[in-house]
Design brief:
The complex is a heterodimer of chains A (about 120) and B (about 110).
Chain A (H helix, E strand, L loop, with lengths): L2 E5 L3 E2 L5 E8 L7 E7 L6 E7 L4 E3 L7 E6 L4 E6 L8 E7 L11 E5 L2
Parallel strand pairs in A: 2-10
Antiparallel strand pairs in A: 1-3, 3-8, 4-5, 4-9, 5-6, 7-8, 9-10
Chain B lengths: L2 E4 L2 E4 L5 E7 L8 E6 L6 E5 L3 E2 L7 E6 L2 E6 L9 E6 L6 E2 L3 E5 L1
Parallel strand pairs in B: 2-11
Antiparallel strand pairs in B: 1-3, 3-8, 4-5, 4-9, 5-6, 7-8, 9-10, 9-11
Classes of the chains: A mainly beta (about 120), B mainly beta (about 110).
Chain lengths: ~120, ~110
């Protein structure tokens, strides 16, 4: 069965760039889009954006100027880069399969923005 | 599209029926509306997609209905494992958006 696993630093300094990778195992990335979603502590879910297997992207305008999502199908990975982070970017970051509804999610990784 | 879920908290006993509402600020295209369940420390779990289709492995006590701007998730008889937070999500237009969640707690 397909599984997703997020990885990356758990602590990022303000004004720096947050970088996360999601590794897909147990299946192909082909024919699917791949998403990032986050959840600030004690709050609800926020859609960040997605990338198709061919590399086209769809970003939440709230992040557009700071956000890059990329994909490497040869490694079965896709990545998130969020620049100029502030403390409001502190959250659990999830990767998920699908550009619309998400049936498969990673377990999530906590990223804290703090000096 | 802004999704507003009500109530914020639902206090019920096991065996009771739960009715959760999700109202959209504008019509959701093609009923592209999903429902998720989230328990503490866990990723969300897809329950319903396309407003009324159950995801793989979801028990039939969960049902979804609605169209346009008004959607409902019904849990026919609450089991102990159903006490959690529930989110609706629209994926008919960008940006995708989630409701703020409804917490179903044990009365």
């Amino acid at each position: 069965q397909v599984q997703l696993q997020e990885s990356g630093p758990g602590l990022v300094k303000p004004s720096e760039t947050l970088s996360l990778t999601c590794t897909v195992s147990g299946g192909s990335m082909i024919s699917y889009s791949w998403s990032w979603i986050r959840q600030p502590p004690g709050k609800g879910l926020e859609w960040i954006g997605y990338i198709s297997y061919s590399g086209s992207t769809n970003y939440n305008p709230s992040f557009k100027s700071r956000l890059t999502i990329s994909i490497d199908t040869s490694k079965n990975q896709f990545s998130l880069r969020l620049s100029s982070v502030t403390t409001t970017d502190t959250a659990v970051y999830y990767c998920a399969r699908g550009g619309g509804v998400h049936e498969i999610w990673g377990q999530g990784t906590t990223v804290t923005v703090s000096s | 599209i802004v999704l507003t879920q009500s109530p914020g908290t639902l206090s019920l006993s096991p065996g009771e029926r739960a009715t959760l509402s999700c109202r959209a600020s504008q019509s959701v295209s093609s009923s592209y509306l999903g429902w998720y369940q989230q328990k503490p420390g866990q990723a969300p779990r897809l329950l319903i997609y396309g407003a009324s289709s159950r995801a793989t492995g979801i028990p039939d006590r969960f049902s979804g209905s609605g169209s346009g701007t008004d959607f409902t998730l019904t849990i026919s008889r609450l089991e102990p494992e159903d006490f959690a937070v529930y989110y609706c999500q629209q994926y008919g237009s960008s940006p995708r958006t989630f409701g703020q969640g409804t917490k179903v707690e044990i009365k």
